[in-house]
Write a structure and sequence with these properties.
Elements: H1 4-11, H2 16-34, H3 36-40, H4 57-68, E1 70-77, H5 84-92, E2 109-119, E3 122-132, H6 145-163, E4 179-184, H7 193-202, E5 208-212, H8 220-236, H9 249-259, E6 264-265, E7 272-275, E8 278-285, E9 288-291, H10 300-310, H11 312-334, H12 349-455
Parallel strand pairs: 1-3, 1-4, 4-5, 5-6
Antiparallel strand pairs: 2-3, 7-8, 8-9
Helix pairs in contact: 1-2, 1-4, 10-11
Bound molecules: guanosine-5'-diphosphate and magnesium ion.
Length: 456
């Protein structure tokens, strides 16, 4: 099947003849390479005697593409309140999101919304992804991570679909990010380190289009200096931003002019103001009105033209052929796939699978052995610990036993002495009682004698 982007460029009426020639040439080479009849003998050109009809190829492609519809995915990265949602609404002339986001998010998250738009019978599935809470945390070190992860996740989903046996790429909802609008705060000074770090992390994964947000907050002369400063900072930090392509002569001039206007300074507003006898999108201030679509006021029109009308297809193409290709190559290499083996022979999938399987089994065995060793070591350690504890317990038991015996001995001695004392006491008691009885008896006979004497 022919790539979709060829059809789309035909649709736009540019590059048409060149790309269709390319497509036909591509198909001819494919047939030549794969068809047994053609594989041995080169094609010879023959003049046509009359009209055959393959000049309708462009129309066929256009019809097919229009029926299928198009998809475009934009990622808006920038601090909360920089006008991301407003710009999207202004750009597509509609109202997308609901509530504005708060500044108290604990981390950066990405919110994705997909919309079906239609313009002159051409359907566009537009996905707008917004960074929520970007730049709102005190520690911004990891702010870029969720964005990188999100972009990679979309590439991974596409790769998984590609690798499936039964793949449905023709009606697959492609969520790969085609353009990343990076919103720069209109400080007039320089880029923040958060901006540089984030753009650097993203530049090999997505087409970055930097824009100066809320550019009505900065004066004309300051804006010119600010643009130069941003560009030089991007260059000195090696940040690759998306350049509008200049290889296609039909758009080379406009694209190279527009490249010199980067980063675009934009103003967003969905508010309509009456100007003369027509309504225009503008922001009204006590001192005047900023018209969004007036090129003397801001670069909004330039952005819209470049992003949607002229280069939307190139953005999609760059995403597929450059950024996705890089992701796919790294991922497949990571999985052990190669195009050729060390002897420069084509690498077979079966061999790769076997090699990877053996490698994996080897690693598994190594891990198993390590775990076994660790387990034996742990058991030994535990055994030693238990033995130590047992020894301690024995010692404690002996100590307690001895203590108990000593105590018992002491108690027995004490009991014996008490018993002796009791016996002694009993003896004394008996002696005392005896004495008392004797005394009583002696006392009784003396009284009798005295009575007898009295009676006498
Ligand atoms: N001065 C100025 N204000 C803007 C512009 N675009 C949006 N705003 C205002 O900035 C505030 C935040 O905008 P919003 O789109 O919610 O920002 P987001 O958090 O980045 O999505 C709103 O009050 C907008 O009206 C602009 O270009 N210039
Ligand atoms: Mg918003």
């Amino acid at each position: 099947m022919l790539p979709l982007y060829l059809a789309v460029t035909v649709l736009k009426g540019r590059k048409a003849s060149r790309n269709v020639t390319l497509a036909v040439e591509e198909e001819r080479l494919f047939v030549q390479a794969h068809h047994p009849r053609f594989s041995k003998q080169p094609l010879s050109s023959v003049p046509l005697a009359g009209h055959v009809g393959f000049d309708s190829m462009p129309d066929q492609l256009v019809n097919k593409s229009v029926n299928h519809g198009f998809c475009f995915n934009i990622l808006c990265v920038g601090e909360t309140g920089l006008g991301k949602s407003t710009l999207m609404d202004t750009l597509f002339n509609t109202k997308f999101e609901g509530e504005p986001t708060q500044h108290n998010q604990p981390g950066v998250t990405l919110k994705s919304n997909t919309y079906e738009l239609e313009e002159s019978n051409v359907r566009l599935k537009l996905t707008v992804v917004n960074t929520v809470g970007f730049g709102d945390q005190i520690n911004k070190d990891d702010s870029y991570k969720p964005i990188v992860e999100f972009i990679d996740a979309q590439f991974e989903a596409y790769l998984q679909e590609e690798l499936k046996i039964k793949r449905t790429l023709h009606n697959y909802h492609d969520t790969r990010i085609h353009a990343c609008l990076y919103f720069i705060a209109p400080t007039g000074h320089s880029l923040k380190s958060l901006d540089l770090v984030t753009m650097k992390k993203l530049d090999s994964k997505v087409n970055i289009v930097p824009i100066i947000a809320k550019s009505d907050a900065i004066s004309k002369s300051e804006l010119a200096k600010f643009k130069i400063k941003i560009t030089s900072e991007l260059v000195s930090n090696g940040v690759q931003i998306y350049q509008f392509p200049t290889d296609d002569e039909s758009v080379a001039e406009i694209n190279s002019t527009m490249n010199s206007h980067l980063p675009f300074a934009v103003v967003g507003s969905t508010e309509e103001v009456k100007l003369g006898n027509k309504m225009v999108k503008a922001r009204q201030y006590p001192w005047g009105t900023v018209q969004v679509e007036n090129e003397n006021h801001c670069d909004f029109v330039k952005l819209r033209e470049m992003l949607i009308r002229v280069n939307m297809e190139d953005l999609r193409e760059q995403t597929h052929t450059r950024h996705y290709e890089l992701y796919r190559r790294c991922k497949l290499e990571e999985m052990g796939f190669k195009d050729t083996d060390p002897d420069s022979k084509p690498f077979s999938l079966q061999e790769t699978y076997e090699a990877k399987r053996n490698e994996f089994m080897g690693e598994l065995q190594k891990k198993e052995e390590e775990m076994r060793q660790m387990f034996v070591q742990r058991v030994k350690e535990k055994e030693a610990e238990l033995k130590e504890a047992e020894k301690e317990l024995h010692e404690k038991f002996d100590r307690l036993k001895k203590l108990h015996q000593d105590e018992k001995k002491k108690l027995e001695e004490k009991k014996k002495s008490l018993d002796d004392e009791v016996n002694m006491f009993k003896q004394k008691k008996t002696a005392a009682e005896l004495l008392q009885n004797q005394a009583q008896q002696a006392g009784g006979s003396t009284t009798l004698k005295r009575d007898k004497e009295k009676k006498k």
